[in-house]
Amino acid sequence: MVKPRYFLPQEFEVSEEFQKALNEDYNRLIEEPESHIKDRYNIDVSSFYGPFKIKNPFGKASGQLSTNKGQVMADIEGGLGFTVLKTVIAEDQDKKAEMDQWKIHAPKMVVEKLVSKNGEEGYSVVWKGRGWEKSLDDYLDFFDQCLAVAGEYPIIPSVKYHLPGPSEEYKLSEYTYTTQKLLEVWKKHKNEDMVMEKDFSPTFAGTDVAGQKDMIISWLQDVPRLIKQSVDEPIHLGVKMMNATLEDEFQRELVREFLGKDSSWLADFAICFNRLFDHNKEFEGKVGVAYGGYDLSDRNLWALEEVLDDKPSRQVSATGNICSGKMMLEYALRGAVNGQMHTFFQIPQSEYAPIDASRTRKAVHELLFNPQKGLVAGLIYIREKLGKGTEPFTFLEVTDLNPYVLVK
Questions:
Q1: What domains are there in the chain, each with its CATH number?
Q2: Who's near 146: CB < 8 A, 6+ residues apart?
Q3: Cα separation of 75 and 21, whole Å?
Q4: Residue 278 pLDDT exceeds 90
């Protein structure tokens, strides 16, 4: 059982003036929250996802909630910073996919309350599905539709390519064909380099084979190179690092290897990390499912402490139980510049801010304006803790901060 060092209090206490302002803002709809935050609090909550400037650090992770244009439009209208589309299973020119077993039609999702090993109560979503259940051609059409309506809003494709077993070779035709087809769609709408994610599912790490550690490290080393070599144009590549089912220390070994200061990893940024995996849990007749909650965020935060002194050597996009602005800031203190969420958009609406708005807008408002655990309250708290008074302050400053200055 791992237990990370939390650098922030359970609830933020800020000066009386700002506390009053936060209480007012929490209970009303604010049409342009980022501008309002800058004007009223002298705080800039903008950040980056890969090379894209985003208005706030909150985005939607790849999953069941990014499988159609309507969901993406709701993300844009709801005020998110970016959206990662459901993960497509790579195909070759003959429409064959080595990872075809990951195309599962199982849209049903169940929200569960979980108590972590450290006694924290949170939420997790359980489902049987894995990747995009339809063809690559269907995905390309979906991707095209989303880019056509997105404007400057970042829409990111996610791909699961073939990963070989101990005595197999990579099916390079999948890498070439799928990446080229995605790039063709991207270039219809964008002039800049394509940005994409490579997904490593937690279930890939669930097989009990000899040399599992070496195989995982080899995948993480080889796959970015193979993706980038598959096309003639530059790709800005994010790799979702799995939460391996091996001992906890191996997760820190992965962080040292790929996010340490001496890393030569070819990924441009890392998504840290995918969900945990329970081999014994049953759902809808399937034994073995992924899960989240505070066990996940505890594991992730603890693993990222491995590079706390130097910060990660490349940009980090955090995932895992981002259930508040406070949790986003804990990840930011470990170098993460944005956070991807899935479960948070499905929890009971009573957990969101009491405003009349869409579910997504309520969720973003909750993350930003909650007076005790929201992002703005946390940034005010950190600014006051640093003795900066009401000086201009930014979310990105937190990602560079030595977190130990907050606990002296």
A1: 58-351 (3.20.20.70)
A2: 69, 72, 83, 85, 155
A3: 27
A4: no
pLDDT at 131: 80
- Would you give the end-to-end CA distance of the chain in angstroms? 26
- 8 Å CB contact between 89 and 109: no
Distance CA 5, CA 382 (A): 17
Q: Which two tokens stand for residue 331?
A: 């990840």
The model's pLDDT over 139-150, given as tens digits with 9 standing for 90+, comes to 999 999 999 999
Burial of 294 by CB count in 10 Å (0-12 exposed, 13-18 middle, 19+ buried)?
buried
Q: What is the number of helices (H) and of strands (E) in the chain?
A: 12, 16
Q: What is the mean pLDDT of residues 372-395?
A: 97
49: nearest Cα among 73, 75, 81, 80: 81
Distance CA 316, CA 307 (A): 12
What is the number of other CB atoms lying within 10 angstroms of the CB of residue 351? Answer: 13
CA 178 – CA 135 distance, rounded (Å):
11
More confident residue, 152 or 109: 152
pLDDT tens, position by position, 77-99: 999 999 999 999 999 999 999 88
Q: Tokens 């070759």 identify what position?
A: 92
